[in-house]
Amino acid sequence: MKPKVTMIAWNQDDNYVVTAVNNHLLKVWNSSTGQLLHDLVGHADEVFVLETHPFDCRIMLSAGHDGNIFIWDITKGTKTKHYFNMIEGQGHGAVFDCKFSPDGQHFACTDSHGHLLIFGFGCSRPYEKIPDQMFFHTDYRPLIRDSNNYVLDEQTQQAPHLMPPPFLVDVDGNPHPTKYQRLVPGRENCADEHLIPQLGYVATSDGEVVEQVIGQQTVDQDEPGLEPSILDGMIRQLQLEQDQRTAADQESAPSGPQNGEGTPRRG
Prior knowledge:
- By secondary structure, the protein is mainly beta.
- It is built from two helices and 19 strands.
- The chain has helices at 178-181, 230-252; strands spanning 5-10, 16-21, 26-30, 36-40, 47-52, 59-64, 68-73, 78-84, 86-87, 91-92, 95-100, 106-111, 116-120, 135-136, 143-145, 151-153, 168-169, 199-203, 209-213.
- It has a four-stranded antiparallel beta sheet with strand order 1-2-3-4, with no helix packed on it.
């Protein structure tokens, strides 16, 4: 195998440089003389995450596709702490990114299975108030390009950055209760009817009325005038209200030549 450097990171005081090589080794170098000081052994796959501690110049974090997360003392060339991202029933999850908190007491990682892992000192009680599965409903919505090659949301025909704040949903797309929807920036002061209740009622093919999560309520999409789901209908309604407010603001704004090109919008 021809050695290739995959990542480079300076430590906090710039006295050391750490390189990740595709043979799974980390190498610690003296930044002034270029001398190789240590080989750090532990990873079993390529490393694409190297993060220095925000104030302790001895500490460096590494993580890779093998699911391993190491805290190193690069001055001694030793392992301080090791975590392995094992996911029950699915093997290990490759770690894609890690960041330290500003106070250096915590660090957070994201993996290939969509998990956010938070490590640190203290207890996990503050995190128990939030659901285990949290996604924005727009995370996997299809995008299209218009005639000017601008990216638009397929459902609303709107530029993604101009859309209303997204809803929080679980892994199946079911919206969370209103108390969680208020955690989304921009939804803190929304009316309750704009935050989607968790449950609704739907009639089955046998005529029986059952309670069901709103995000799972569907209708025959071949019937004209019907929305694919109540969630989609509410999204369209919020988008329409936002477009009406924008149009009203533009009518009240002073007219004059506009410089620069903006993102085209469709009704």
